[in-house]
Amino acid sequence: MSAPRSSSGYWMGFAIVLALLAAAPLVLPEFWRRFVTEILIWGLLAMSSDILIGYTGMISFGHSAFFGLGMYGAAAALLTVRPPNLWLALLYGLIGAGVIAAFVAYFATRLRDIYFAITTLVFSQIFYVIIFTWTEVTGGENGLTFRQPPFSVPAVLSVPFTPVTLHWFVLAVVALSYLLLRRITQSPFGMVLQSIRENEPRTRAIGYHVERYKIVAVMLSGLFAGLAGVLYAVQNKFAAPDFVFFLISGEVVIFNVMGGMGTLVGPVAGAAFFLLLREVFSRFFTEYYLIPVGVIFTLMVVFMPQGLLGFLRRRLNQ
Amino acid sequence: MRFGGLTALNKVTFSLPAGEIRAIIGPNGAGKSTFFNCVTGVLPPTGGRIVFSGEEITGLPPHRISKKAIARSYQITNILPGATVLENVRIAAQSRHHSWSLFRHHRAFGDLIDRARAVIQAVGLAGKEDELAANLSHGEQRHLEIGIALATEPKLLCLDEPTAGMSPAETQETMTLVRRIAKDLTILIVEHDMQVVMGLAQRITVLHYGEIIAEGPPAEIQRNPKVLEVYLKT
Known about the structure:
The complex is a heterodimer. Chain A has helices at about 5-25, 30-55, 65-80, 85-110, 115-135, 135-140, 165-185, 190-200, 200-205, 210-235, 245-260, 265-285, 290-305, 315; strands at about 145, 150-155, 155-160, 240. Chain A has one domain (about 20-245). Chain A is mostly helical. The mean pLDDT of chain A is about 90. Chain A is globular, with a radius of gyration of 19 Å. Chain B has two domains: about 1-70 and about 155-230, Rossmann fold (3-Layer(aba) Sandwich), CATH 3.40.50.300; about 80-145, no CATH class. Chain B is built from nine helices and ten strands. Chain B has helices at about 30-40, 60-65, 85-95, 110-120, 140-150, 170-180, 195-200, 220-225, 225-230, and strands at about 1-5, 5, 20-25, 50, 55, 70-75, 155-160, 185-190, 205-210, 210-215. In chain B, the strands form three sheets. A six-stranded mixed beta sheet of chain B has the order 6-7-8-3-9-10, with helices on both faces. Chain B has a two-stranded antiparallel ribbon with strand order 1-2. Chain B is globular and about 60 Å long. The mean pLDDT of chain B is about 85. At the A-B interface, helix 7, helix 8 and helix 9 of A face helix 2, helix 3 and helix 5 of B.
């Protein structure tokens, strides 16, 4: 087995990227500092959906629901518990996303391919409508605003976030999530998911209860998407129904395709690339920015179907 | 077994003693594949019972059938093309142990790797462990197909045309392979190549339009007038 040879190179690369991302807020101006933090959060969302798209071969158009429930779960904790507590926001957000993910997983995994995708889309739109119309609880169209919780270690310290420390916190959560997701994709469970992607009937025939694996995959994916939602809520101090809308789910799929499915880091790169394109083009083309972004996306799909980091796929998955 | 108005298998009463190599033959459309699909859970039978090792398994889904120690290979090669040979076999072995482990690397489970390597050796693919399954030759893929089935530790192995599309030399190799693995297994084999059937099977069951028209040792089947009429002559 060739693992040890390439793994030192892998960890070197990981350390360099991590160091650059940690140093970024110290050198970047305010606007770009925020931008990099946001990229990490969208990257985590994209990474969570890669578990389904890239590893299990199920395309979810419902990740906005998990992300949004993470946001609203965090909002619930930050608005009801005094003083606002970061870890409670995390817990509520994960519970919110987890419950919804279990619900969606139970029904959607009975279907395959396009039918699975449509079912996730429909579920996420149902949650969107509920959140949009249930004004007394969710704030309806206006969403909810709240104060940012301080970073706290119970009974030890409690310090308010600065943009730089918030960035480091987000970076730490995203990096740990990445390592955990990577480990899961390489575990026996993860290998079953990849076997389902490669050949579902055969996976069934060698003794795997495919639906159960898919349900757990959707739940895991939903939990990490919810985690991204919590981070976004903490960074921006609001939860809004727009983030539950299916446009977000579509962007997540685009991040995956652009960056390289089935690599975990590819979708993060895809998110960075897409958000950067949008930022740059919206300065020149204002509201027409989607036209050049769309052209670039189309060209990438035609000439670079593996995405930005797809060429690293085998090495990243060893 | 019926599909709408078509009765694909009718009153097939069939029993297979442990340790036997049994061949099922019959012209195209005789119901051989349907029979396999019923036994391995791909199609739930519309009537009748299937009993394996004293346990009723009628209509169980494929993953449950597999857990009962029944494995199959496919007429059309059915492997994980994007995975290595080792992974194809390892994942099959894993279906019996450790499959719900989430937080350890899959290579940390040495028992599975050892099992996979032993199977790869047994099907004659030693040295090809790290090749992508898609890059193997047709004959090698057919052997991998059998390897995947073997790795699930079956007691009954159903081989659906294991020599389909093979050269005569490859066919010989496959026959040797089947004979070798048959020592600890019961084997049910569907095959068109009469040489293979006559060379391997201890007994032969002949299906025609979904019904059994003859059953017996190869020599007897070759002389059976009914069989000659519907099958061997053509």
